[in-house]
Each structure stands twice: as C-alpha cells, then as structure tokens.
Amino acid sequence: MEFKAVITSGVSLAILLSYIYIITSIDKYESSDLPAFKKPIESKQIHTRRIKNSEKQFKNTLDNKNQWSIPQQRLEINTALKTRHRGVFYLKVNKAGSCTLQAMFNKYADKHNQIVGMPCSNSGGERHLVGWPEPFKPEYLIPLSKNYTYWEHLNEHIKYSSKIKQVMAPGSVFVASIREPLSHFFSYYNFYNMEKTYEGYLKEPNKFKYFLDNIKTMPHLELIHHMPPSNPIAQCFGIKQEEQYNITAIQEKINEIEKEFDLVILAEFMDESLILLTECSDLTIEDIVILKNANVRNIKKSKPVLTPTEYENLIQWNLADSMIYNHFNKTLWEKIDNFGRHKMAIKILELDMAKSIKQKECDSVQRKPNLTRIEDLKIKHDCMIPRLNYIGADKYFRNKMTEKGIYDIEKAQKTCKYPPNKHGE
Ligand SMILES: *[C@@H]1O[C@H](CO)[C@@H](O)[C@H](O)[C@H]1NC(C)=O
Ligand SMILES: *[C@@H]1O[C@H](CO)[C@@H](O)[C@H](O)[C@H]1NC(C)=O
Ligand SMILES: *[C@@H]1O[C@H](CO)[C@@H](O)[C@H](O)[C@H]1NC(C)=O
Ligand SMILES: *[C@@H]1O[C@H](CO)[C@@H](O)[C@H](O)[C@H]1NC(C)=O
C-alpha cells in the first residue's frame, strides 16, 4: 500500500521570508516527494492561511473543552488503580511519515489525557525543537508541577538520548519511524532546501544528480534548523557527527536502538508497522486509524532515476542511515513473520474497515454545522485533533496542560531558556 502519507528593512525581510518558508513547508511536503528540481513555491498568503486554519481548527477543538475537567478526575482515579494507558515516546524523524504519525499519537494522547511534553528551549520558528541539535535534556521541556513526575507523551523534534527513558512514565513505549534511503534523502534534500545551502557547489541541469556525482568533493554544510546534510535519521537517534561513517559506532547505535525502542516503523510498510504497534503498546486498531489529512498532501511520488554509481554514492553519504534502514527492514519482516502473515492480512482488513467507519463518522459531524449533543461534540473533537497541523496541536496541548495545572509555569520562568506565557505558549 502506498504510504500517504515571526518576526518582522533587508535583513529582517530575509529572516521573515525564510521563516515563512520553513513554517509553510514543514508539514506541507511531509512524506511526499517533490518532483526533481522544482523549488517549493511559497507565499505569504499560504502562511497566513495556515495560521488562520490552525486558529480555526484550534477553536473547533474547544467546543469540547469543558470535558477537560472530567478527565482530570478520571486521571486521579486511574493513577490509583494503575489503569493509565502506557505512555508513548515517538522519535520524530522528519520526512519519514512523522507528521502523520505525530497526529496519530496526538489523538491517542488527547483521548487518554496523557501528560504531554512541550519544549521551551527554542524560540520563534524553531519553537518546536527540543534543544536540537543538542541531545535531550529535561530542562528543554516545560517543567511539570509537583503532583506529576513523568511525561507520558513526547513526540517533538528531539535528538535521542538515554535520558529520555528517565523522564518518561515507566512502561512507556518507544517508537521511531524511518524510510528507505533514496526516497528519504531525496525528500529531505528538497525539504531542507539543500540546493540553496550548496548553491556554489552545484551545477545544472540536474543538481541532485550533480550532488551525488561529486559527493567526494562535497563539504558537510549545516542546513536550516541546524539539520545535518547527511545521515539525518542516525542523528535523530543521537549518533555523533564524527561517528556517522564509523561502522563500529553505527553498529553500536543499531544495538542501542534495538534495545531501547519497542518498534521502528517503516514508512513503506506503514499499515504492517502500525498493526505491530497495537501489539506492543496500548493503542488499539481504532487508535491507529489515519484519515486523509489536509495537512499532508499526497503529491505523486517521483523519485529520480539514479545510475548505480549515484545510488552507491547516496548510500555512502548516508551510510549510518542506510545501515539502520537495512537492519530494521530485516527485523520488521521477522516480526511480521512471527506475528503471522495471514493474521497480518486480516488485521489490515480490520484496519481498513475501522478507517471507513471513522471517515463516515467524521464526515457526518462535519456536515452538521450546529452540534449540540455532547456525543456529537466529542466525535467532532476526536476528528479534529488529528487534523490539527503542528502549530495548532502545539497550541492545543500547551493550553490543555497549563489549564489542567500539569505545567508549572512559574517554575518555567526560571528553568526555561524561552519561558512560556501563562497559557503555556
Ligand atoms: C496535588 O494533589 C493533591 C492531592 O490529590 C491536591 O490536593 C492538590 O490540589 C494537587 N495540586 C496541584 C497543583 O494540582
Ligand atoms: C569508531 O567507533 C569505535 C566505537 O565507538 C571507537 O572505539 C573507535 O575509536 C572509532 N574509530 C575511529 C577511527 O574513530
Ligand atoms: C526490505 O526487506 C524486504 C524483505 O526482506 C526486501 O524485499 C526489500 O528489498 C527490502 N527493502 C530495501 C529498500 O532494502
Ligand atoms: C443552530 O441551531 C439553532 C437552533 O436549533 C438555529 O436557530 C440556528 O439557526 C442554527 N444555526 C445554524 C448555523 O444552522
């Protein structure tokens, strides 16, 4: 199955334009390939529309806001009975289905009123980064108030470190997603506008191919958001720059991921991966339903055709990512075999059925403008959460955590590099 997948003369204008580019492109091209050499066309209107959309989406979710008080009580009872749903740490690897998966995990976190971690380590257009490119430290998150010890949900852009295990609720499930090296790197190259960063080094007619043909002379230049030009997946998993071509170190990293993560999702086998997720977490089939989303455009995939040498160069440039992919492609299929291929096929049918039921449900509440029944409002809310883009979701969870007294905003003024306001924003 195909996977679908601010700031205000010359310098400030440049900052503004690049900010708009980043903001509007971040989930727009998520998990979809751009045709080669076509620069993303961005405009201010798109940005404004996006902000407006997220405002609107956000307001919609508030229809159901009075429910927050109920879950607070339930939260305490659940803690007492130890029936809380297991937490989820999702390592957000860009261009590997991460927007879709982030939205899915947001829905689960909201449904079970989980304690969601939000960063306070970066500012402006980089607000969503958890201290990146530094490995995770707890002070990168808005601190929790006294009654809470652990985070139950963390799915922001972060550099993995074993410290994450210490701050996540015991029993939390650790999940990451990766993607086949050529699709991933091509998508990443476009998304992070590598042609701009490597402007002086590339030649027409096909700059991507030129990059690969001349890989041995290409320097390692830092991209926007401090992203690395090579092995972005391995670097999300916390491999050090100087280790990215060291086979021993890469193998050690793979062993660490194998040990620390419950599941590595492959974007090419999303359904199978998600079924396996229901086996190793508290997510149900209904929780892994992903509906078509306006935030994730399904641009037809058009990977460039590479010569064997170009492909080999791409693999060498992204050696750590390729090794990680090969390993987890192998283990995914081992897991699928252990699960049973026939059973897998049945579960995927079940998932398809759950999708069409949910789609009908969401369409029906969308058609009715004037909902009053609490059940309808709840359905609308549940359909809305996964449709929030990352700006909207960020705002939603920051508000929710703050209003419920989960975040200690006062303490945050001391511990955060960029402290949140009284709404957690
Ligand atoms: C912490 O929990 C106690 C006992 O349940 C409660 O009385 C108190 O109000 C809570 N404090 C906060 C800040 O939520
Ligand atoms: C490669 O990594 C291993 C394990 O971390 C380390 O012992 C070794 O010194 C590294 N080799 C080089 C050439 O840096
Ligand atoms: C992933 O594994 C499957 C099954 O072993 C194999 O057929 C496929 O070629 C692998 N994909 C890549 C991109 O290596
Ligand atoms: C919403 O419902 C009320 C009462 O049923 C009705 O008066 C009003 O016109 C409706 N509004 C819309 C936008 O349908």
Automatic annotation (TrEMBL):
Membrane-topology descriptor: Single-pass type II membrane protein
UniProt xrefs under InterPro entries: Gal-3-0_sulfotransfrase, P-loop_NTPase
GO cellular component annotations of the record: Golgi membrane
Keyword Glycoprotein: yes
Name this polypeptide is given: Galactose-3-O-sulfotransferase 2-like
UniProt entry keywords in alphabetical sequence: Glycoprotein, Golgi apparatus, Membrane, Signal-anchor, Transferase, Transmembrane, Transmembrane helix
Similarity comment: Belongs to the galactose-3-O-sulfotransferase family.
UniProt keyword Transmembrane helix present: yes
